[in-house]
Design goal:
The protein is α+β, with helices and mostly antiparallel strands. The chain has four domains: about 170 residues, Immunoglobulin-like (Sandwich), CATH 2.60.40.2380; about 210 residues, Rhopdopsin 7-helix transmembrane proteins, CATH 1.20.1070; about 160 residues, no CATH class; about 150 residues, Histidine kinase-like ATPase, C-terminal domain (Heat Shock Protein 90, 2-Layer Sandwich), CATH 3.30.565.10. The protein is about 60% helix and about 15% strand. The strands form five sheets. Strands 1, 3, 4, 6, 8, 9 and 11 form a seven-stranded mixed sheet that branches. Strands 15-17-18-20-19 form a five-stranded mixed sheet, with helices on one face. The chain is elongated. The N terminus and C terminus are likely disordered.
């Protein structure tokens, strides 16, 4: 078995030597001080299915010699194989093979070692962590060992989702890193310019808070990431441990650049104001950009790239056309946008023409987008700076115009003052006369108001008097009805006493008189008289107590000291009000009270009783008029909640519409018939409630009754009200 393996390796080696002898060594490296471009001296084989291995590639006779300094394979999903035959005529044995294209995704280097009869395989690409590379540069560098005066064959296996261009060089370590260093200097200058512009625009945004500067700062960051991604710099310095971002960045960042550029375009040229339809249509471009990113994540890289290129072209034309229109309208800021965007588009065109091999691949065509984007950033930053100057000039112009207008106004005012003084004098006399008439009118209005308030008071007083008369009349009638039979009983008792008084111990007819007295007792029925007197006295006492209760309630309701602030029992005020209204309450109305134990409330007791009187009386009248129900119920609740006293008056009356609720507290507004009310009752209620710093709420629907809630503070919150 061992002999067989050795035989296979020997045959493989001999086949490689035999095949290579048919090919001529095209690369002759003889100057170790330079990097030799070898693109047109390599052999290329395209594997469409990507299934060939190194053994099949070595035996293949399908390699074709490149005729270009930089082979360009375009956008292809095929695997590309390169065969490189190098003859070393320099003084060094150790050289460097350079592939200066960082965006190639997978690179596999094959170096056949004669001492082991095997290919040494070195894999690199964006799918690996950056630190796994021997040389930490974005370019792919491979050590090759070729003894002086000999030649050797190497193979490269390449895969790329983007446009595959293959700039190849052979040199020494020193010359290779000199080339990398020179390119890094150019990249550093570009990055420096972009960073300065970024900080400048962020600084201006921090001062003026104009969104144009913010969107432009975002645009600069994205264009910087896009351009430097072509050189592999973000993968080297920003996300070396995130290979997937390095792979997808050519699809993500250009799309985001387009979106950010659109937003800057709209803000900078104020498209929302100038042309709102164009402003809205611009959002349609976000859709294909998003589709392009999604397609890349699904593996459809070619379609993603095509969608992105078509959208970018459409966006470029869109912005150029409307920027030109804005410029034609007299907006000078647009000229900077046109020039800067034109330079950037020229850079893109040159770069694309390089990809299509219309222009040669060199440092200028490779970095033309960098030049274009750098020039665009600088010019647009100048445009934004010029915008400040324009705003400053407009401000200065407006200030001059304002000063001129002020001067004209001053002259006009001076002229008008003379005329006005004359008219003022005339008007002063007219106003003095009108003022005198208004004072008379105001006096009449005050007298009328006083009369109306007096009418309201008299109406309340009349109702109060009628209620009191009715309430007192019942017990008084009861007392007066008991007095006559009581007098008759007392008269009989007194007559009996007189008969007893006429008896003397010396009378000889004592037994006769006693018999006469006994006979009289039976006539008057003394036992019944005793019971009747006791009953009549109890009735009189009960009538007196009821009268005293009414007087006490009246006194509690009236509060003759109502102009003074005092702590009062709200429940007593409610009860006394209901006592007074008892006589005017129809029999079909049930009154229910649920009065919780309350602390004393600092208030004007008499005024609050007037509030209770108006609210309760209105509720009774509303229920009395609502004939849809035979039985009605008036519910009075009181309770303490959150350091506030709540009094609820709930009736089952006709309710109120929203229009009535909105006007209920307006003076002279009433729903009663003509002559039944003044319309001041609820207005006075509202004034009293406001004077207490309290609140009144009304909940009512037509046909559903009304709920009125008073919310009182435990301590008076406002200054004392004036007595009306």
């Amino acid at each position: 078995m061992i002999k067989k393996n050795i035989l296979v390796k020997v045959i493989l080696f001999l086949s490689i030597v035999a095949y290579n002898s048919k090919l001529i060594a095209q690369v002759n490296y003889n100057d170790e001080t330079q990097n030799l471009s070898i693109g047109k001296d390599v052999y290329i084989l395209v594997d469409p299915k990507g299934k060939l291995g190194i053994n099949e590639i070595v035996k293949s006779d399908k390699f074709e010699k490149s005729k270009k300094d930089v082979p360009n394979m375009g956008i292809t999903s095929s695997t590309v194989w390169l065969k490189i035959i190098i003859k070393n005529t320099s003084n060094l044995d150790n050289l460097i093979l350079q592939l200066n294209q960082p965006i190639i995704d997978e690179v596999v280097f094959y170096d056949f070692k004669a001492n082991t009869n095997k290919f040494e395989v070195l894999k690199m690409g964006e799918y690996q962590f950056f630190h796994l590379r021997k040389y930490l540069t974005p370019e792919y560098l491979f050590d090759i060992e070729i003894p002086k005066g000999t030649e050797k064959t190497f193979y490269l296996e390449l895969k790329c989702k983007e446009n595959m261009q293959i700039p190849l060089f052979v040199g020494t370590t020193k010359s290779a890193f000199k080339l990398v260093s020179n390119r890094n200097i150019g990249s550093g200058i570009y990055i420096g310019i972009m960073m300065v512009m970024l900080l400048y625009n962020l600084f201006i945004f921090g001062i003026v808070r104009d969104k144009s500067y913010l969107w432009y700062s975002i645009y600069i960051v994205l264009i910087l990431l896009t351009q430097t991604s072509l050189q592999g710099l973000p993968f080297q310095f920003l996300w070396p441990n995130t290979p997937w971002l390095a792979i997808y960045s050519p699809y993500i960042f250009p799309s985001l650049v387009g979106i950010a550029g659109l937003e800057f375009f709209k803000e900078f040229l104020q498209m929302r104001v100038r042309n709102y339809k164009v402003f809205l249509y611009s959002y349609l471009f976000i859709i294909p950009y998003t589709v392009s990113i999604i397609l890349s994540f699904t593996g459809k890289y070619g379609l993603s790239f095509q969608v992105m290129e078509v959208t970018a072209s459409a966006v470029s034309v869109f912005m150029m056309v409307f920027a030109f229109k804005v410029y034609r309208q007299g907006n000078h800021e647009a000229r900077f946008f046109l020039v800067g965007w034109s330079l950037f588009l020229v850079g893109i065109c040159i770069y694309v023409l390089k990809d299509f091999e219309v222009l040669p691949y060199n440092n200028f065509t490779r970095y033309t987008m960098h030049f274009g984007s750098g020039a665009e950033v600088i010019l647009l930053s100048f445009a934004l700076a010029d915008r400040i100057n324009i705003l400053k000039k407009e401000k200065e112009k407006s200030q001059v115009e304002a000063l001129h207008a002020l001067e004209e106004n001053r002259k006009l005012i001076t002229e008008q003052n003379i005329i006005l003084e004359q008219k003022v004098h005339e008007r002063t006399e007219e106003l003095a006369q009108s003022n005198s008439e208004l004072e008379v009118t105001l006096k009449n209005l005050k007298e009328t108001q006083s009369q109306l308030v007096s009418v309201e008071k008299m109406a309340s007083l009349g109702q109060l008097t009628a209620g009191i008369a009715h309430e007192i009349n019942n017990p008084i009638n009861f007392v007066s009805a008991n007095i006559r039979p009581l007098n008759m009983d007392i008269k009989d008792v007194l007559e009996l006493i007189d008969k007893y008084s006429s008896i003397s111990p010396d009378d000889g007819n004592l037994s006769e008189k006693i018999n006469e007295i006994e006979k009289f007792k039976k006539e008057i029925d003394l036992d019944y008289i005793k019971t009747e007197i006791d009953t009549l006295m109890n009735g009189i006492e009960d009538g007196a107590k009821r009268t005293a209760e009414i007087v006490k309630g009246l006194k509690n309701f009236s509060h003759l000291d109502e102009s003074d602030i005092k702590e009062a029992d709200i429940n007593k005020g409610i009860e006394s009000t209901l006592v007074i209204l008892r006589s005017s309450t129809p029999p079909n109305i049930e009154v229910e009270t649920n009065l919780a134990e309350l602390p004393l409330v600092e208030c004007y007791p008499g005024k609050l009783n007037q509030v209770f009187m108006n609210i309760f009386n209105n509720a009774i009248q509303a229920m009395d008029k609502y004939k849809e129900r035979e039985k009605h119920k008036l519910t009075i609740n009181s309770y303490l909640k959150n350091e506030h006293v709540y009094i609820e008056c709930i009736d089952t009356g006709m309710g109120m519409t929203q229009e009535v609720k909105d006007k209920i507290f307006e003076p002279f507004f009433t729903t009663k018939d003509v002559g039944e009310g003044t319309g001041l009752g609820m207005s006075i209620v509202f004034g009293i409630i406001e004077s207490h710093g309290a609140k009144i709420e009304i909940e009512s629907e037509p046909g559903q009754g009304t709920k009125i809630t008073l919310i009182l503070n435990l301590k008076l919150q406002n200054k004392p009200i004036e007595t009306v």
